[in-house]
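Chain and backbone:
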Amino acid sequence: MKSVVIFILIGFLAQMIDGSLGMAYGVSCRTFLRTVAGVPSAVASAVIHIAEIPSSFFSGLSHLRIGNVNRDLLVRLMIPGIIGGVLGAWLLVDFGNKLERIIDVYLIIMGVLILQRAIRGEWKRTGIGKFAYPVGFMGGFLDAVGGGGWGPLATSAMIASGEDVKKSIGTVNAAEFLVTIAETTAFVAMMNDLFDYTEMILGLVIGGVIAAPIAARVCSRLPERPLMAAVGILIIGLNIYNLIAWK
């Protein structure tokens, strides 16, 4: 029972970050599962995505109801995201992950760019979905192989290209649900030893579902510039930590 409560707390905090800032559910959970519980990379990613199905559903639905979702951008992110996610799951299970450090550096650069634009308070909008297809594909791929990465990559790229901050966060959260379904299906089809992690999955699910509607409200009510600055700082901090902790 004690361990379930711990996993509920982890799921709640991870979803609060993800739902309000558009990123870091998988990164937060994966850090705990890998460093504290010692779960192998492929299993950690599979567990995170199974647990993320209900929380991503409620998060996306909450953003949709509030009006934070751009439906055209949703489709442009979702379809390539599903393709990339399935490919990433297959490569992780069969070959392991070799790309995390490169992506850490890329995301730090993106975080600096976003923070710079938040401080200046002005940025050029480049039109809907200019980079959505490649970003969706790479976001899905990296999310599967790294246990997280859809939010940091997709949200940061959409904001950095000039899309509306709140619409970017809400749309990325909504697209994440179907991308997660595709990734989870691929993991379950290729792995047969996930039943031992039922307690872990249950705790993450409960915490995430509780947090999802709260986080969507937080996102809707925060002013845009501080929200953008928070996104940039979060991206920079998480990925610097990943580089320092890498062995």
Summary: The two ends are 33 Å apart (CA to CA).
